[in-house]
Every structure is written in structure tokens, then in C-alpha cells.
Design a protein that fits this description.
heterodimer, A: mainly beta, 1 helix, 5 strands, 31% strand, B: 5-stranded mixed sheet, 19% strand, elongated
Chain lengths: 65, 273
């Protein structure tokens, strides 16, 4: 089990950050992802694996200012 | 007896009248404020009265302005704000408003960065004037802040913020405010600050477009990251950026700056007790 934006989600071995985004249907290209408080760069979404018990924060930044 | 003259505690002779005080301290004053009211008649003064003497068009000295801010903000708070440095990345609808609020508050040093110039379309929400069209926003903001409080230290860079210069620009800041317009720039700054200056408080703006729904705009904290906005209202055709809502979000950001800076003060004080 992992926690994504305060909601529980089933964990699978080998799951990457991109898998988490896909399963939660985060389709926005411009997101900040932190796993246990550490930033994961966008370039590493496909390779950075998520471990059981991890806390994932996904923050969608949108234009306007 | 003690009164407050131009926000400073001042010893005056007992029973002195208001106009005698004016003659002694500022004979050329043309506006006299007595306990919050403009007055034109003489009257005896009592201990604790507050008198402000104004000559129209005359700027207060650094000491006078400081005393005025202390009187409004209380001494411990003002000392902390004066010793603080805040970075503002981008000087559009968010950043130009944040900069004005923080200058009014009397933050000691503001580091501003924007490579853009003022365009006519900016005037619908950004803190610029029609005669500043075509000026660099960095220069225009510096000029505007100097008109509000010339004693705030303002370093205004006409520069595009990139991952390569973010530490050089904002390393000194106690807090950084992200105030870009485009989402790609917001992500660039967030990634740069989180990786190159971990632990530095960063206040993002996200979801500020449109009008109405004032109370959807909130400040949400995730560790050292703060997100101001409704996180839904993206700017797009049909949902533009309009002064009130962008201004609400900008002042959420400015207010969060104060909470970060002054929250630390309260912690220090509680440790001393």
C-alpha cells in the first residue's frame, strides 16, 4: 500500500512514478512529484520506482499569474 | 508628560496646547492629526495623546517611517521583518502585487527577478501604470516600491530565472515566492529550488484565473512547499487572468511570507520564556 495525495493506493513491485500517475489518471504534463518529501525529476518518472509504504505527493501546477 | 508625536514617544511640558506643540516641533505643518482626527482648533493635550504633524508633499525620514511601521506592526514584528530577505520570481499579476504588499510591510530586502517589459495587456491586473508601458518590469517595480517605501532594500534583476542562476539570485532569501505566469516556468522554479536549495520555503501560485469563487483560493502546505490558489482554475481562452482573483492569491502568498517569517519569531520567543 502506498499513499498518493493522502489517499491509499495498492502497491505493486516494480511500480514507477509514471505508473502511479497513469493509474491515478494524472494526465497533466506539468506536475511536481515528491516521494517521501524528496523531489523526483520529470525525467526520472519512468525509472524511479516506488516502494511499499511510500508517501507520494503529486502537485499540478497550472498557468496563470 | 509623554505623548506620541509622529508615532514616537515624546516628552512634552505638562499642559502644553496642541498649537504650541506645533510651533515647537513643526511650525510649517499644514495638517494636524490629533488622536486620529484632522483638527483645526487648538486644544490642551493630555498624557498619551497621539499627534501627527504633516507638511503636504514632504516625505518622512527613515526614522519616522520606521516608527510609523513599528506603531502599526508592534516592535518585535517590525524588527524581524526588517531583518528579512524575500525573493520574488516573476513580476506579473502575482509578483508585482506581492512586491507591493511586502514593501508596504517594510521587509528589509526584496530580491526581484523578471526579464519582461510592461505591456498594455498587463495593466488589467499588474501593479504598473500607463506611463510605464515598455519599461522593464524589474525597473518599473523598483521605481514603484521606492515611491511607497524608499527604505526597503530592493535588488531588481532584469534576468530570466533559470536552474543555473536560481541559487545565485535567491540563495540569500529567507523565503522565495514563485510568481510566474506559465506552468512550465513554475515547475522549473519548483524543481530548481527543491533540488538546489532543499528546505528553503517556497510559495507557489497555482489556480488563480477567472473571477468569483474568492473562498476557493486557499493556502495549502506540503512541508516546505506552500501552494496558493484553487489548484483548479487554469488560465485559458475563456478564463482570463483578472485583477481581484489574482490579487487575492498574490496576497495569500505575501501573507504566507509573513507567517513563515513571524512564525519563527514566535518560536524563538516561546523558547526564551
Amino acid at each position: 500500500m502506498i499513499v498518493v495525495n493522502e489517499q491509499e493506493m495498492a502497491w505493486e513491485a516494480g511500480m514507477t512514478v509514471q505508473d502511479v500517475l497513469d493509474r491515478r489518471k494524472f494526465s497533466f504534463p506539468l506536475v511536481i512529484v515528491r516521494v517521501n518529501g524528496e523531489l523526483v525529476r520529470r525525467a526520472d518518472f519512468d525509472t524511479h520506482t516506488v516502494e511499499d509504504g511510500d508517501r507520494v505527493q503529486v502537485l499540478h501546477l497550472m498557468s496563470g499569474g | 508628560m509623554q505623548i506620541r508625536l509622529n508615532e514616537k514617544s515624546t516628552e512634552v511640558e505638562s499642559g502644553i496646547s496642541l498649537f504650541e506643540l506645533v510651533r515647537q516641533h513643526k511650525p510649517d505643518a499644514d495638517v494636524i492629526i490629533w488622536n486620529g482626527y484632522p483638527v483645526s482648533q487648538d486644544r490642551p493635550l493630555s498624557p498619551g495623546d497621539r499627534v501627527v504633524l504633516i507638511k503636504r508633499g514632504e516625505a518622512p525620514s527613515r526614522d519616522e517611517l520606521e516608527a510609523l511601521l513599528v506603531a502599526r506592526h508592534t516592535p518585535g514584528i517590525q524588527a524581524r521583518l526588517k531583518a528579512s530577505c524575500v525573493g520574488v520570481a516573476g513580476l506579473g499579476g502575482l509578483g508585482s502585487v506581492v512586491a507591493v504588499s511586502l514593501a508596504r510591510v517594510g521587509i528589509g530586502k526584496l530580491i526581484l527577478a523578471d526579464f519582461d517589459v510592461v505591456e498594455p495587456s498587463n495593466l488589467n491586473r499588474q501593479q504598473y501604470f500607463i506611463d510605464q508601458i515598455g519599461q522593464y518590469k524589474a525597473d518599473a517595480t523598483r521605481a514603484n516600491l521606492a515611491r511607497i517605501n524608499p527604505f526597503v532594500g530592493v535588488v531588481a534583476h532584469r534576468v530570466r530565472v533559470t536552474p543555473d542562476n536560481v541559487v545565485e539570485l535567491f540563495g540569500e532569501a529567507d523565503v522565495i515566492v514563485e510568481a510566474f505566469d506559465r506552468a512550465e516556468r513554475k515547475v522549473m522554479l519548483a524543481e530548481s529550488v527543491l533540488t538546489q536549495m532543499p528546505g528553503k520555503p517556497l510559495i507557489l501560485g497555482s489556480g488563480v484565473a477567472g473571477y468569483g469563487r474568492s473562498n476557493w483560493i486557499q493556502t495549502r502546505q506540503e512541508g516546505d512547499l506552500y501552494i496558493c490558489g484553487d489548484e483548479v482554475s487554469e488560465a485559458r481562452p475563456g478564463r482570463g487572468l483578472i485583477a481581484p482573483r489574482v490579487g487575492i492569491a498574490a496576497n495569500h502568498q505575501a501573507n504566507q511570507v509573513l507567517e513563515i517569517l513571524l512564525g519563527e519569531l514566535q518560536d524563538e520567543l516561546s523558547e526564551r520564556e
